[in-house]
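[Automated response] Your request has been received and processed.

Submitted sequence:
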Amino acid sequence: MLLSSSDGDCHPFCYARVLGIFHANIIYTGPGTKDFQSRRIEFLWVRWFEVIQDHSSLWEQRALDTVRFLPVADKDAFGFVDPANVLRGCHVVPAFGDGRLHPKGASLSHCADDSNDWKRYYINR
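Generated structure:
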């Protein structure tokens, strides 16, 4: 769960599933280089959810946020996140009544484990 970078009436949070936790030792040699010491950079590899419900009325209706994964083929379906930007973990509950996205277990990405995707999820807060 991260703060949304969008301004305006957009949903205030972004949601993603962490696929991997990584680090890299980087030596920066570009403009402004002070030394050639390696620095440890930590990052998360994530698969993004998209919010499918208008947030403005959710608090009044006492309804949970509803999300779904972006399609695996979408150019924005995956990304990298600085762990310092993560607000907190949250419980993402499948909407079991809606069923699975791929009832026959078809998969496009072994890394994303999209064969187990549900059509919708609730963000339990």
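Summary generated for your ticket: The CA atoms of residues 29 and 83 lie 24 Å apart. The mean pLDDT is 86.
If you did not submit this request, please reply to this message.
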